[in-house]
Specification:
This protein has 309 residues and is an alpha/beta fold. The chain has ten helices and eight strands. The chain has one domain (17-295): Uracil-DNA Glycosylase, subunit E (3-Layer(aba) Sandwich), CATH 3.40.470. Strand 7 (243-247), helix 9 (249-252) and strand 8 form a beta-alpha-beta unit. The model is unreliable at 1-36 and 38-43 (pLDDT under 50).
Length: 309
């Protein structure tokens, strides 16, 4: 089945913001560190103009439909879907396509094929690459990196830290909402669905994209980290002036993938209950991110999640 192009290719200077968030709150660091890129660095790829929220929403919806169809077709043939078939967005397929032929990805495919046969795996197959399919490389404005998906029934939806309406809001997200309330005067929602952010080009990435039901970190060190590290490296190499928000020690390890001469880096404690009071509360990263976007002539992210979903 041919893959649809879900993004614009018109070139125009832009700025993205990358928020790297670890889920290991116990290991979080409290320091707040800011670095600014050199003024004369060049970039390899000029990003396209920002698509509208409606355009990104429509593209994300089409991508889920395509991924669902491919998963159903594989099931009808008695086979698991190929991971590369679930990655629909053309810009990410172009950027990461070579990764799927590497030995580590073949091993990951074999591992997941066994896991799907023997266990319940989250998120559902069509949503595994939802973060990628919702935010083309040249449309990314913010990236939020979690560790791995929620492992309880019905929680994981393919977007880091986000849970569907009707599910309890996890503690780290509760604290993110508190900081948003203090930093940007956002009203605290009664749900944890962050889909609205993804429709503004917020790349909500987990370092590991799948998990076995009720078994946290069960799919770690199977190859996902190599792929998602490659995605971060793509953004670092191909974009200029990104702002990396690194929350907690796990996320801050990703700084080694980022060219600090080209990009801004902000660091703070993890928002979990174990460490939010050690530097996350009061970091004001959301308003700082928007300030960078405004400086580049781009509209800020509307961080306000609808109070009722």
């Amino acid at each position: 089945m041919p893959t649809r192009t879900l993004h614009s290719s018109v070139a125009q200077r832009s700025l993205s913001v990358v928020a790297a968030v670890s889920e290991d709150g116990k290991a979080a660091e409290s320091a707040v560190i800011e670095t600014t890129p050199a003024a004369n660095d060049s970039t390899d790829v000029q990003p396209a103009p920002k698509l509208s929220t409606e355009e990104l929403r429509a593209a994300a919806g089409r991508a889920i439909e395509i991924a669902s169809l491919r998963a159903e077709q594989a099931k009808a043939l008695g086979a698991p879907p190929k991971l590369e078939d679930l990655l629909v967005d053309e810009s990410w397929r172009d950027a990461l396509g070579a990764e799927f032929s590497k030995p580590y990805m073949r091993k990951l495919q074999e591992f997941l094929s066994r896991e799907w046969q023997q266990h319940s795996i989250y998120p559902p197959q069509p949503l595994i690459f939802r973060a990628f399919n919702s935010a083309p490389v040249d449309q990314v404005r913010v990236v939020v990196i979690g560790q791995d998906p929620y492992h309880n029934t019905g929680q994981a939806m393919g977007l880091s830290f986000s849970v569907p309406p009707g599910k309890a809001v996890p503690s780290s997200l509760q604290n993110i909402y508190k900081e948003l309330q203090e930093d940007c005067a956002c009203t605290k929602p009664k749900h944890g669905d962050l889909e609205k952010w993804s429709h503004q080009g917020v790349f909500m990435l987990n370092a590991v994209l799948t998990v076995r039901a009720h078994d946290a970190a069960s799919h770690g060190k199977q190859g996902w980290e190599t792929l998602t590290d490659a995605a971060i490296s793509v953004l670092s190499a191909r974009r200029r002036g990104l702002v990396f928000l690194l929350w907690g020690r796990y996320a801050q390890q990703k700084a080694s993938l980022i060219d600090s001469k080209k990009h801004h880096i902000l660091k703070a404690a993890h928002p979990s209950g174990f460490s939010a009071n050690k530097g996350f509360f009061g970091c004001k990263h959301f308003s700082k991110a928007n300030a960078f976007l405004k400086k580049e002539g781009l509209p800020p992210v509307d961080w306000q999640i609808d109070p009722v979903q």
